[in-house]
Amino acid sequence: MKGTIGVILVVGVAVAVADPMDCDAQANDQSLLQREDSAGVQIVEALRPLWGDSSLWRINPAPLLDLAVSGSGPNHEFGHVGGMVRFADGSLVVADATWLQIRLYSPEGDFVRATGRNGEGPGEFSRGIEQMVGAASDSVWVLDSDGRVSVFGPDLGLGRTFNLLSNASSIHDLGDGSMAVQYVSPFWTKDAIGAIRNPTVLWRFNVEGTRLDSLAVTEGYDEYVVQFRDGTTASVSPLFRKEAQVATHTGRLFVGNAEFMEVDERTRAGDLVRILRIPDYPLSLSRSALRAEREAYLGGRSSSLLREAAERTPASGTRPAYSRMIVDPSGAVWLQLYRGESEAEEPVRWLVLAADGTWLGTVGLPDRFRIVDIEMDAVLGVWYDELDVQHPQVLRLERR
Length: 400
Hints:
By secondary structure, the chain is mostly beta strands. It has one domain (about 20-70, about 155-400). The protein is built from three helices and 27 strands. It has helices at about 20-25, 285-300, 305-310; strands at about 35-40, 40-45, 55-65, 80-85, 90-95, 100-105, 110-115, 130-135, 140-145, 150, 160-165, 170-175, 180-185, 195-205, 210-225, 235, 245-250, 250-255, 260-265, 270-275, 325, 335, 350-355, 360-365, 370-375, 380-385, 390-400. A six-stranded mixed β-sheet has the order 1-2-20-19-18-17, with no helix packed on it. A five-stranded antiparallel β-sheet has the order 12-13-14-15-16. The protein has a four-stranded antiparallel β-sheet with strand order 3-27-26-25, with no helix packed on it. A hairpin with a 2-residue loop joins strand 17 (about 245-250) and strand 18.
């Protein structure tokens, strides 16, 4: 494993926000960015948002395409959308984690074909679909719940299948036919009591399933382990749970631990090359916010064991910096700002860092919409209607 482990939030984004002369001026504006090198690693600190209090980018809520209404019948009905990929010709692949299928649709939204079901045979998904990602040559990689990866071509023909360990939690395309695989390392036992953070490790694999190298270690995710009077233990998520995020772009690996507004950028070999951060980004939690979160957390749990565990779970004095990370085709890093259970009705906002590390500002989402992927002029995602029916949609992204 190479470079320093234990990354904070770093963001790298290459976004066309103006003409080249304007971009050069922004890069030299000391009120926006500060750069320094430390042991061969560039540290980029964004000091204020370029957009100020407004947003120059907008996601138009009127769908360019809605696969739930572009046709009829079971092939246009969706359980839980676990992934969306758009190929170069505009066709769309949707992973349905409820029906254990991946489905192909034309650019106009017509159903073309589907493949997959529960099982352990070729092209089947054992116990569930964990993730689907797009890869080179209009192919998709699907990770199932048993740690098996299936590679499908542009017509959804099965190319190959290989096994990872069952504790593989996510896969990420590194752009050269290899992938970064994140493994969960649950280490707590009955002797580990209290607040812990389970680390995860990132390994590099080829598409034959051969492990090539170790890339990085993240701080993983928060847990709180409670021991009850009878000696049994239970693990629950603490309030304002922090969880490391991973993304890739053109062979670079982006890792953030969500402890601060900071992200590390690494090469596909695991070398740390850049740290993107917003210093002193406000993440402190007030007592009233902690009280509201505890009430919301306990209000949805009827199990006496869970309630006892939750009541004994301490809360951090800071909120997670973000809960998701996506790097768009320009290299811009999008970070979904964290919302607790008590904040679920608040608007979803994404903080955006340009490729050079400039803090652009935030972009709000339409109501009841969840982003799956981000393109230059569109976002792929899911809109939930009043009955919580899922609509896979393509929305226009307006970059002004």
